[in-house]
Amino acid sequence: MNDKLIRYSIDVILKFQQPNGAYPACPTMPDYQFCWFRDSSFIAHAMLISGETASAQAFHTWAALTILRYESNARRAMGDFSVGKAPNPHDILRARYTYDGGKGPDEWPEFQLDGLGTWLWALKAFNDADNPLNVDVQRAAHFVADYLTVLWPSPCHDLWEEAGDRVHTYTLAAIYGGLLAAADYLKRPELCTVADNIKTYVMNNMVSSGRFMKSVGNPIVDASLLGLATPYRLVEPDDPLMTATVKQIEADIYAAGFGVHRYRGDVYYGGGAWLLLLAWLGWYDTETGNTERAEKILSDIERQAASNGDLPEQVVPPMLADVSHYDYWVKVRGTIATPLLWSHAMQLITANAVQQSTVKS
Ligand code: BGC
Among this protein's residues, is 110 annotated catalytic? Predict the structure, then answer.
């Protein structure tokens, strides 16, 4: 039933991947015509598990070469942070680069550490599937592991590119998952100790009322908290803190049948419901045995694809939080990003997880 959309998702990603491996976040929206580490690491993972190893390989090489190009400045950012200074925005590794690895406009909130953690995480499945990491990828992964080891406690923008003065739970989970993964394939057991410290920090500072919170000092739930269990395994999917968090996500921001809002009070395009977050909830479901809802989620996603198969970033009516914010963003950026390659990637990941759990049972 979902097969047609699975094929389409693979094709649309292949169609827009650049010859050098970069994946655009969205090929039709000017502000998204860049390659983000976050979006692309999930896209590369989706391509890997869909049998498109060459596509994943090309992205990982692009990522490595881009990181190594900026290594010396990034080392300066590490040095500054180590002596108590805020990293210089011109030195940090950026959240996104142009397709050829250049820097985008300076005013973008580029200091986002989660994408680099996700990249380290994605390399593990890639390597485990008998794909040796080439020399550049290994060098870049070693460097990113060092970079995150130093910088993880720093406030930075979250995965929604907001609140750069805070430390975010999802960001730390992505770094945790990335460092644990890298400890294995880089054979650096000391990274497990860093990951343990991160987990301790999360447990001591990012739990409130028996569940996880969005950021230090912000107790609301954010849909990205799903990532704590799936896939980063900071806790198990059935950990009571996790199940309480997901219950709160369902109560506050799950628009059943449509999508999942990022968080309460989101105003981006009026705060629509995101398809990639809906898929993420389904992915989590496959890990707690709720395959039935995961299957429903996949058909909800399919129903909201455009007639050619394109998946948008978010859907708006009928749960639009605020029309004026919707109109504002349409004026600033144009219509909602479609196709969003990250939405396609999450559809592939969840469809694959459902298939795997059906095979197992
Ligand atoms: C989202 C980011 C995403 C970027 C590109 C932003 O609107 O908040 O999470 O990486 O778009 O898709």
Answer: no
Q: What residues does CATH 1.50.10.10 cover in the chain?
A: 34-249
Distance CA 96, CA 38 (A): 8
Average pLDDT, 10 consecutive residues per value, the chain (361 residues): 90 98 98 98 99 98 98 98 96 98 96 99 98 98 99 98 98 99 98 98 98 98 99 98 98 95 94 96 98 98 97 80 84 96 98 91 69
Q: Residue of the nearest CA to atom 9 in ligand 1?
A: 160
Tell me the two tokens of residue 342.
């990250």
Q: How far is the CA of 160 from the centre of ligand 1 (A)?
A: 6
Measured between alpha carbons, how far is residue 271 from residues 108, 253, 324 in Å? Answer: 20, 10, 11
Nearest CA among 233, 207, 54 for reference residue 126: 54
Q: What is the pLDDT of residue 70?
A: 98
The number of the ligand 1 atom at minimal distance from the alpha carbon of 160 is 8
User: Is 114 marked active-site?
Assistant: no
Catalytic residue check, 313: yes
Catalytic residue, chosen from 71, 136, 146, 161, is 161
Q: Provide CATH code, domain 34-249.
A: 1.50.10.10
